[in-house]
Design goal:
The complex is a heterodimer of chains A (543) and B (71). Chain A is α+β, with helices and mostly antiparallel strands. Chain A contains 15 helices and 17 strands. The model of chain A has no long low-confidence stretch (mean pLDDT 95). The chains are: A alpha+beta (543), B little secondary structure (71).
Chain lengths: 543, 71
């Protein structure tokens, strides 16, 4: 396998909204920036097919007193923001909204700021509806116009460290089957969420996930292997939506969640409401699963009683959100939301935790910055922090020289040998086998029921799987090698999840320890996990 | 399986292969009808349809397990 070295001031790993915003801002401030993207920034990642709501404070809509808005923001179950970031959001969200609007992402609807969905009746609404179907194309254009270099189909898979400083990353060029060594003064991690770790709604169909299945926690895994801290890895999250056709966007549906007897399952609305939606499943994502398990189910998204205009309005936003596939399918099958109630379900588990970074986007590793869904959610959070990260990095690289990476040649050579071995092997396990096996281990030993004994056995199984995978994985071409790298990342994340779950000896949120079935007030802290010379270290941090 | 190319309408521009987030058209050659090499990796978010310059040149076939349950 060939090897090449590329130098830049700033390397952005992942061309999602966070990475593109960071790249645009850092380039504006004079830095040379390259984005490596394993797909194509025009459509990649969780925001690739679009989005339709941006959590935002607009004084002319919400009033001058920001306090109720700030409280609504912190308390909102779907936003899940860390309090220390809330004031930044308050200051910056409208600024970014205006910037995007000026770039050509329509942030207004019919000439006005439209707020709707994910809201409790009577409470302030903080989700701005915007027509984000073209957001990735617009952001890509803005980046290219400023001279950001974008390399698509490049899968970054390992950070390069010299004397405890991150000085670049290794990436695999999928189309040309070669290894590229990127040298940078700062690296920005924005690889998105961590999907495909647990089985989804249709386990035999691996890529049927509610969030983008090509986001496989690559940033988390690279940071973990490089000795950086991950946080909250012990907490599972659970999403919900249309049954079997896994997709986010349930908040966009204008209907009432009803049981088989047509009675609403939640207390918030009794008829379809365009402004508020039915927020029940934001609060209670397991409602669908709970109804099924008790035999009371199923639960339906029932739009009957809405007007045709309501449905057109809903379809408009679902398309901008990237849900055109589901709508086309409904049309083809003649499923009419005004006549048919559609069953909903609770989906498989995901990981709440991710890369620890502060309000300046600094991680625990020098030279490494992160934002977006490396930890935490929402388009607003990703873009505001991406923008700030771009500014901080442009400032950080001033006066910094490129490191001498020849001192790290050994780990680069090891990575090269690992990749070559996978490509050259004739017989062995496919990435699919490894992925499916990992999912069954995570589900059975670190799912919604956890205990010391389950986790001990799960970890043994996982370590055996890792060994086998390292010695037997086969990739017939560059595409499959990319998938192998994803699965190897997921294996490391699975390990961090199980170790963290074993360390937190209490029940808290969806982390359910049957051997410690209570919440311990002394453990109301954040758990960090990191590796020092391949030894795992835990640190408990005050909130 | 997932993206289905209408060979009569396809202009062979290759944009679907270039932008597909899942790279399901891996191995597609320039100026040829795209190859759906990894159909089971399609996410059905319809990026290819959105980017395709010709209406109706690509359709998504939704796999059976992703059925909708409705009444």
């Amino acid at each position: 396998m060939e090897k090449e070295v590329v130098k830049t001031d700033i390397l952005c790993v992942g061309g999602g909204p966070a990475g593109l915003m960071a790249a645009i801002r850092a380039r504006e401030l004079g830095a040379d920036v390259i984005i490596v993207e394993k797909s194509n920034t025009l459509y990649s990642g969780g925001g690739g097919a679009g989005n339709d709501h941006y959590v935002c404070y607009i004084p002319e809509v919400h009033g001058r007193d920001p306090k109720p808005i700030l409280e609504a923001y912190i308390r909102h179950p779907q936003v899940g923001i860390r309090p220390e970031f809330a004031n930044i959001w308050l200051d910056k969200s409208f600024e970014i909204v205006k910037l995007w609007d000026s770039w050509g992402i329509p942030m207004k609807y019919n000439g006005r700021w439209e707020f709707a969905g994910h809201a409790f009746p009577g409470e302030p609404i903080i989700h701005l509806k915007y027509s984000g179907g073209n957001q990735k194309q617009v952001l890509t254009k803005q980046a290219l116009q400023r001279g950001v270099g974008i390399l698509n189909r490049f899968t970054a898979f390992e950070l390069i460290k010299v004397k405890n400083r991150v000085v670049g990353a290794l990436a695999f060029d999928t189309l040309n089957d070669r290894l590229i060594v990127f040298q940078a003064k700062a690296v920005f991690m924005g690889t998105g969420s961590c999907i495909r770790l647990f089985p989804n709604a249709t386990p035999a169909w691996l890529f049927n996930s509610n969030n983008c299945p090509f986001t496989t926690g690559d940033g988390r895994a690279m940071v973990y292997r490089a000795g950086g801290a991950l946080r909250d890895m012990e907490y599972p999250v659970q999403w919900a939506g249309i049954k079997y056709f896994a997709r986010s966007g349930k908040g966009t549906w204008i209907g009432v969640l009803r049981g088989p007897d047509d009675k609403p399952v939640g207390p918030f609305i009794t008829k379809p409401d365009r402004i508020y939606g039915d927020v029940t499943s934001d609060m209670w994502t397991s409602v669908f699963d709970d109804y099924m398990k008790s035999g009371k189910g199923p639960v339906f998204m029932d739009c009957r009683g809405a007007t045709r205009e309501d449905i057109d309005y809903m379809r408009y936003w679902l398309i901008h959100e990237g849900n055109r596939g589901i709508l086309d399918y409904m049309d083809k099958e003649r499923i009419d939301p005004l006549k048919n109630a559609i069953e909903m379900s609770t989906y498989g588990l995901g990981v709440k935790g991710g890369v620890e970074y502060n309000t300046d986007c600094e991680t625990s590793l020098q030279g490494l910055f992160a934002a977006g869904q490396e930890y935490g959610g929402s388009m607003a959070f990703a873009t505001i922090q991406g923008w700030i990260g771009g500014e901080k990095m442009a400032n950080y690289i001033k006066g910094i020289a490129h490191a001498d990476i020849s001192v790290d040649n050994k780990s680069i050579e090891t990575s090269k040998m690992k990749l070559t071995a996978i490509r050259n092997r004739k017989n062995g396990a496919s990435w699919q086998e490894a992925n499916i096996t990992l999912q069954q281990i995570l589900k059975d030993y670190a799912g919604l029921v956890r205990s010391e004994t389950l986790l001990n056995q799960g970890l043994q199984n996982l370590e055996r799987l890792k060994d086998t995978v390292n010695n037997t994985l086969v990739a017939r071409n560059g595409h499959e090698l990319g998938r192998c790298l994803e699965v190897m990342n997921l294996l490391d994340i699975g390990e961090a999840v199980m170790l963290s779950a074993r360390e937190r000896k209490e029940t808290r949120g969806k982390h359910n320890r049957t051997d410690f079935p209570f919440t311990n007030p002394l453990l109301n802290k954040i758990l960090h996990i990191k590796k020092e010379d391949s030894k795992v270290i835990f640190e408990w941090k005050s909130k | 399986m997932p993206p289905v190319i209408n060979a009569e309408k396809c202009k062979k521009c290759g944009v679907c292969a270039e932008i597909c987030p899942g790279d399901v058209f891996y191995g597609t050659k320039k100026k040829e009808i795209p190859v759906v090499a990894f159909p089971e990796e399609c996410w059905h978010e319809a990026s290819c349809i959105d980017a395709c310059p010709v209406d109706g040149a690509i359709e998504l076939r939704i796999p059976l397990p992703m059925m909708l349950s409705y009444k």
